[in-house]
Amino acid sequence: MKNKRQSESQKTKWLAIMTAAGSVAVCAAVIAAYSVAMNNLVPTNSRTDLLGSSSYSSSSSPKTDTPVNNPSVTVPKDNNSSSSSASSKPDDTEPTNNPVNTVKGNIMPIEGDVDIPFSNGELVKSPTLGVWKTHDGSDILCPLGTDVKSMSDGVVKEIRDDALMGVYVIIEQTNGLEVHYCGLAKELSVKAGTVVAQGEIIGKTSDTNQSEILQQPHLHLAVKKSGEWIDPMSVIS
After folding, report:
1. Is 183 left (phi over 0), alpha (psi -120 to 50) or beta?
2. Given CB 3.0 to 4.6 Å as the disulfide criterion, which of 14, 96, 214, 218 pairs with 128?
């Protein structure tokens, strides 16, 4: 009976030893597997957790991060940059070096002194007629037969043969003036519609101006601007 109890006690000890050994083996296997798994992990810098520790990814996993200088990554262009640059350029459509139309001045039709000047609406006594009247031009002294030149470019508007003022030529100038050359000879160098240039001879002085026949030989020069008589000397350069 005593031997039987000792035998059962020994079996119980062996069973406990085997159980402990099995537990140790299981723990060892778990630790070994954990070590292998940890050795296969490599640190990455893709992110950092809240505690500052690096996260890990398996070395066997393919990397999916796109390099910063990857040429396949394109940045869309800003189309507004070209339009804004174009809009900031100055407008080159306006033509340059355009011809400038200049208005010619007026030259003296003859060389001489003024005998009776423009009266500017004031009444003056006519030496020939003996009446008080306005003198709407300037009487420029010159010998009979003196060449009379056009004061500026223009067109012959009209030629008249008046009983008092004699033969006279009216020229509409390109600078807006209307010029009357009175007391000319009947033989003229121009006719109505003739285009004349500045300085071109239109005729010669004569004694056809009967309203001023008692004066010294002269050219009666009269000028209108916008339909009003003005002093001829005021527009001569």
Report:
1. left
2. 214
CA separation for the pair 198, 109 (Å, rounded): 9
The 10s digit of each residue's pLDDT in 38-55 is 555 444 444 334 334 344
**pLDDT tens digits along 131-157:** 999 999 999 999 999 999 999 999 999
Q: Which run of H or of E encompasses 23? A: helix 2-39
- What are the backbone angles phi and psi of residue 180, rounded to the nearest 5°? -110, 120
Q: Tell me the chain's radius of gyration from C-alpha atoms.
A: 60
Nearest to 188 by CA among 171, 172, 175: 171
Residue-wise pLDDT for 90-102, tens only, equals: 454 444 444 444 4
